Protein 1
Amino acid sequence: MALTSWSDGASAEAQLRAAEEAEAVRCKERDTQYCRQFVKTWRERADEAMHSGDDAHARFLELISAEPWFIVYTEYRAARYKRSHVQSRLTARAGWVTLKQSAAIGSTQGEVMRLRFLGIIPNTGKDDSPTIWLDEDSGDLLIQSYRATEEEVKACQEIGSIPGQGTDVPDHEAIIRLPKAMIQYIPRPDGGIADEASGA
């Protein structure tokens, strides 16, 4: 009797292992089939998901476009953008800028400067743009140009200026090289602009 019970138990255990192995094989087959199906259809499913809201979005735009307030708002935003775009281009072309607290020319805290763009070197590039501005209040010129080399600074120091004047360049000053083409933008005492061609 005991032998029969052991035999039945072993048989049941073997059947259980066989069923588990068969289920594992079926799971592996299902995984393989799913992966193959996914590889074949993933792009189509992704596109479908991406455009799933297109119809609703188009319908929304159609309905809201029929609202008078939306039409007016759209026209207002378009006009505002155009106005700001034109103003920014005019501002850049005219060269008007507002600066505050410019230590370079000794402005005081909170003082507002009015600068006028006079000119930039012809055929300027991204990294080659000597420029001249005029301080409308003081008449001073602000110049962006090439920093003098050590040899050029040394040559200026050797030549000097007026008798008794030191040749060392203070920390708050700098020697720059202004291209000949920029001379035409320097204002003359009579209020005009120097003419490089005529030498005036």
Protein 2
Amino acid sequence: MRITETIIYLIIGINVLTFFVYGVDKWNAIQGRWRISEAMLLMLAVIGGSIGALLGMRIWHHKTMHKKFKYGLPAILLAQIALLSLTSCRTKKELVISEPIKTEPIKHKPIQEHSPNIFLGYNEHRTSIFT
């Protein structure tokens, strides 16, 4: 069995468990018995049972008025979908390093000798260019 199949089975299992835990908590609430803590119900959603938690809320009509469940569970589900899409994106491109480009060395033109007189304001005939 591949690791992806194992992960899928674990996610399905935690969602089924979470769904039934919400049902048991609703049943216990009706009977006036010991209840499952809200922290445990939310933790089951965080570790992968968010779909089961949302279905449990709908089917059992449980925790539907609590804001942390009404808005928190969809937020947890969206975060899980975003995390899943970021980690399992199959369109990632591998970095391919090609061979180095071979180039010819740059050939510089030889530097021409300049008469220092050009910089002093004289032309080739030794007359001033300023007059």
Protein 3
Amino acid sequence: MIMAIMLMASTMTFAGDSPALKAIMKGKSYSEVEQLIKENFDQLVNDEERAKAYSKLVDYAMQKVSKESGAMLEIQANAQAGIKKDIEVDTQGLCDALINAINAAVICNKYDQLPNAKGKVDPKYAEKNIQRIWAEHRQLLAYGDQLRQQNDYANALKYWAPYLDIFQEPMFADQDHAQEKETIEQVSYMTAWMALHEKQPQQAIKYAKIAMTGQYKEEALRVMLEAMASNLQTREDSLRYAGQLKDLLNQEPDNETYLSRLYELYGDLHDTQAQIGLLDATLERNPKNFIALADKGLFAYNDGKYDEAEQYLRKAVDVKPENAFVRYYLGMSLCGQAQGENVPDAKKKELYKAAIEVFDKCKEIDPDKQQVNWGYGRQNAYYNFYGPDSKEFKAAEADYRN
């Protein structure tokens, strides 16, 4: 009988909270419980106790959130009722507490989802934590936007990053994300931009990748690439960046931005062979790739190979007829051929006439010279075809000066 009583007492002691958990649960505030968890964590006997300890931390964090959120609701109710009453709201404190609650809830959930002593998964805190945090998560969005409008990008990041992270957290996967889809796309792009501005390239890359899945893909892509290239101090850094760009290009072979950046980077590294190899490989895969055709043509033009330049640039213009920049260098390639050695006069006239047609089209599609200043090349072609005293040349010269 005595042995049975002793055994029962031993079992009851084992089933109750450990001294470490009891110490934690006696904490009177968020900061006190946080400190007690640090001091007693290794003495917690199982995952159930760990989950319970962090749930207590969530409770205290949410007390602050609820207090300030309640004050906000009271202000709104008073405004609707025409009641004038001074009520202070600690918005920053609310958002700081909400971030603490999210972080503690994620840790709590990690332990709460593990099998208990009987081998069963029996979460006790997940649903409560999910619902109370999700109900307030947009507070981070509002406060972050307030800081952004004040150009306080560093602190705006502090609140927008966890707002975006909550949508990536499996714990909140079953909540309604679709309702905020457009907001997430916009905020992730702006967060990436602010992170780049604040010299936090890894954060910029992280949120740019999220933004690239939506309507801000092109803008976010530019931010991501700028972030990736923001700390290139050595040749090894540049080669590493080139490798990253190659990986991205392999994933999206038709992405013109990746191709352009990689081509430019090889140029910065003075690796002409790599540049040519990249363009040739691209054209072998897709003979109508605009960037590859244009860069091959410009490469040949800069090398004084005007016949070759014309061939590639004509093909590029066929792909994108409204690109005045490439069209302009097609005209310049024709002029370059006309100015070569031993070119018969009749052939020169033919080439300058063809160049005039190209330059006139540049003027038509880009009258304000936003893409390229086509005036110089055009007046040069008019000069050589019509002569310096012709009304045609003088009109072209006027266009150049305007």
